[in-house]
Amino acid sequence: MRFGDQGKLWIGGFYVATVLLWAWGGYAMGLSWAYQVGMAAVAVHLAWQLKVFDIQRPDRNFMLFRANLWLGALLAAAALAGTLIR
């Protein structure tokens, strides 16, 4: 892999940047507090993925990749809640 032994560190950094930018985007769009609660759920999901990730276990990593379906559902639910709940 490109990042070698520091892969988990790099992925964690990308996850932090992702959550911060999504949270800022929701704030910039004027979404309510409900969106930020959803972002907390997204952050927990990504933290779980990072904890379970193991470069030596491609089968597990594929399972994590497929779990991104739930990440998308959390993000969509956060956006919907942030729009509807004021």
UniProtKB/TrEMBL annotation:
Membrane-traversing stretches: 9-27, 65-85
State the InterPro entries in the record.
Answer: Prenyltransferase (IPR039653)
Keyword field contains 4Fe-4S: no
Q: Does this entry carry the keyword Transmembrane helix? A: yes
Coiled coil start-end: none
One GO cellular component from the entry?
A: plasma membrane
Query: Alphabetically, which GO biological process terms does the record hold?
Result: ubiquinone biosynthetic process
What highest taxon heads this organism's lineage? Eukaryota
* GO molecular function per UniProt: transferase activity, transferring alkyl or aryl (other than methyl) groups
- Provide the alphabetized UniProt keywords: Membrane, Transferase, Transmembrane, Transmembrane helix
Tell me its family. Answer: Belongs to the UbiA prenyltransferase family.
Q: What is this protein called?
A: 4-hydroxybenzoate octaprenyltransferase
The protein's organism comes out as: Rhizopus delemar
Q: What does the organism's lineage look like at the top? A: Eukaryota, Fungi, Fungi incertae sedis, Mucoromycota, Mucoromycotina
